[in-house]
Write a structure and sequence with these properties.
This protein has 142 residues and is an all-alpha fold. It has one domain. It contains 5 helices and no strands. Helix 1 packs across helix 2, helix 1 crosses helix 4 and helix 2 crosses helix 5. The protein starts with a helix and ends with a helix.
Length: 142
Protein backbone atom coordinates (compact mmCIF):
# COMPACT_ATOMS: atom_id res chain seq x y z
CA UNK A 1 0.00 0.00 0.00
CA UNK A 2 1.27 3.47 -0.86
CA UNK A 3 2.10 5.84 1.94
CA UNK A 4 -0.45 8.67 1.81
CA UNK A 5 2.04 11.25 3.08
CA UNK A 6 4.46 10.41 0.29
CA UNK A 7 1.63 10.43 -2.25
CA UNK A 8 0.64 13.94 -1.22
CA UNK A 9 4.23 15.17 -1.33
CA UNK A 10 4.68 13.46 -4.69
CA UNK A 11 1.56 15.24 -5.98
CA UNK A 12 2.99 18.63 -5.03
CA UNK A 13 6.28 17.62 -6.64
CA UNK A 14 4.38 16.77 -9.80
CA UNK A 15 2.54 20.10 -9.76
CA UNK A 16 5.90 21.86 -9.38
CA UNK A 17 7.36 19.78 -12.21
CA UNK A 18 4.53 20.52 -14.63
CA UNK A 19 4.49 24.26 -13.92
CA UNK A 20 8.28 24.42 -14.22
CA UNK A 21 8.14 22.42 -17.44
CA UNK A 22 5.50 24.69 -19.01
CA UNK A 23 7.34 27.88 -18.15
CA UNK A 24 10.67 26.50 -19.35
CA UNK A 25 9.74 24.57 -22.47
CA UNK A 26 6.51 26.10 -23.74
CA UNK A 27 6.95 29.75 -22.77
CA UNK A 28 10.80 29.74 -22.77
CA UNK A 29 11.08 31.59 -19.49
CA UNK A 30 14.57 31.90 -18.05
CA UNK A 31 13.48 31.43 -14.42
CA UNK A 32 10.66 28.86 -14.39
CA UNK A 33 11.41 27.77 -10.84
CA UNK A 34 10.04 31.05 -9.47
CA UNK A 35 6.59 30.45 -10.96
CA UNK A 36 6.51 26.80 -9.99
CA UNK A 37 7.68 27.52 -6.44
CA UNK A 38 5.19 30.36 -6.00
CA UNK A 39 2.18 28.48 -7.34
CA UNK A 40 2.90 25.32 -5.31
CA UNK A 41 3.50 27.38 -2.15
CA UNK A 42 0.31 29.40 -2.65
CA UNK A 43 -1.83 26.31 -3.15
CA UNK A 44 -0.34 24.64 -0.07
CA UNK A 45 -0.79 27.82 1.97
CA UNK A 46 -4.38 28.24 0.84
CA UNK A 47 -5.25 24.71 1.92
CA UNK A 48 -3.51 25.00 5.28
CA UNK A 49 -4.92 28.45 5.95
CA UNK A 50 -8.41 27.22 5.16
CA UNK A 51 -8.32 24.83 8.13
CA UNK A 52 -8.77 27.41 10.92
CA UNK A 53 -11.25 29.32 8.78
CA UNK A 54 -13.37 26.20 8.19
CA UNK A 55 -13.13 25.37 11.90
CA UNK A 56 -14.38 28.88 12.70
CA UNK A 57 -17.27 28.48 10.28
CA UNK A 58 -18.29 25.11 11.71
CA UNK A 59 -18.07 26.26 15.33
CA UNK A 60 -19.46 29.75 14.56
CA UNK A 61 -16.32 31.22 16.15
CA UNK A 62 -14.56 34.35 14.96
CA UNK A 63 -10.93 33.87 14.02
CA UNK A 64 -9.85 36.46 16.57
CA UNK A 65 -11.51 34.38 19.28
CA UNK A 66 -9.50 31.37 18.11
CA UNK A 67 -6.28 33.29 18.68
CA UNK A 68 -5.49 33.32 14.96
CA UNK A 69 -4.16 36.63 13.64
CA UNK A 70 -3.25 37.86 10.18
CA UNK A 71 0.39 37.49 11.21
CA UNK A 72 -0.18 33.75 11.63
CA UNK A 73 -1.34 33.55 8.03
CA UNK A 74 1.63 35.54 6.72
CA UNK A 75 4.15 33.60 8.82
CA UNK A 76 2.75 30.24 7.70
CA UNK A 77 2.86 31.29 4.04
CA UNK A 78 6.51 32.40 4.33
CA UNK A 79 7.49 29.19 6.13
CA UNK A 80 5.88 27.10 3.40
CA UNK A 81 7.65 29.16 0.72
CA UNK A 82 10.99 28.69 2.49
CA UNK A 83 10.53 24.95 2.95
CA UNK A 84 9.53 24.54 -0.68
CA UNK A 85 12.52 26.59 -1.84
CA UNK A 86 14.83 24.32 0.13
CA UNK A 87 13.07 21.19 -1.15
CA UNK A 88 13.08 22.10 -4.82
CA UNK A 89 16.54 23.67 -4.81
CA UNK A 90 18.47 20.95 -2.98
CA UNK A 91 16.40 17.88 -2.10
CA UNK A 92 14.47 17.19 -5.31
CA UNK A 93 15.45 19.60 -8.08
CA UNK A 94 13.76 19.71 -11.47
CA UNK A 95 16.42 17.46 -13.01
CA UNK A 96 15.42 14.58 -10.70
CA UNK A 97 11.75 15.14 -11.43
CA UNK A 98 12.47 15.17 -15.16
CA UNK A 99 14.13 11.78 -14.82
CA UNK A 100 11.11 10.47 -12.91
CA UNK A 101 8.34 11.81 -15.16
CA UNK A 102 9.86 12.28 -18.62
CA UNK A 103 8.61 8.88 -19.74
CA UNK A 104 4.94 9.69 -19.21
CA UNK A 105 2.66 8.76 -22.03
CA UNK A 106 0.95 11.63 -23.82
CA UNK A 107 -2.45 10.47 -22.55
CA UNK A 108 -1.28 10.27 -18.91
CA UNK A 109 0.42 13.66 -19.20
CA UNK A 110 -2.76 15.20 -20.58
CA UNK A 111 -4.95 13.75 -17.80
CA UNK A 112 -2.55 14.78 -15.06
CA UNK A 113 -2.17 18.22 -16.63
CA UNK A 114 -5.93 18.73 -16.37
CA UNK A 115 -5.79 17.61 -12.75
CA UNK A 116 -3.02 20.12 -12.03
CA UNK A 117 -5.10 22.97 -13.49
CA UNK A 118 -8.21 21.80 -11.60
CA UNK A 119 -6.20 21.52 -8.38
CA UNK A 120 -4.89 25.08 -8.69
CA UNK A 121 -8.34 26.49 -9.46
CA UNK A 122 -9.98 24.55 -6.62
CA UNK A 123 -7.38 25.61 -4.07
CA UNK A 124 -8.00 29.25 -4.92
CA UNK A 125 -11.80 28.90 -4.96
CA UNK A 126 -11.96 26.95 -1.70
CA UNK A 127 -9.74 29.40 0.15
CA UNK A 128 -11.56 32.52 -1.00
CA UNK A 129 -14.94 30.82 -0.65
CA UNK A 130 -14.41 29.91 2.99
CA UNK A 131 -12.83 33.32 3.66
CA UNK A 132 -15.92 35.09 2.30
CA UNK A 133 -18.25 32.86 4.33
CA UNK A 134 -16.19 33.45 7.47
CA UNK A 135 -16.28 37.19 6.83
CA UNK A 136 -20.04 37.10 6.46
CA UNK A 137 -20.34 35.17 9.73
CA UNK A 138 -18.03 37.64 11.48
CA UNK A 139 -20.20 40.52 10.25
CA UNK A 140 -23.41 38.73 11.27
CA UNK A 141 -24.57 38.51 7.67
CA UNK A 142 -25.13 34.76 7.86
Amino acid sequence: MRDKKNSLISWFDYVYFRIYDIYQNKWHDSMPWIYALTIVSITQSFFLLSIPIIYGIITQTKLGELGVSKYYFALLAYIILGLNYFRYKWIIPYSLMLTKWKGESKNTRKKRGRLVVLFIILSICIFFGVAVIAGMINNNQL
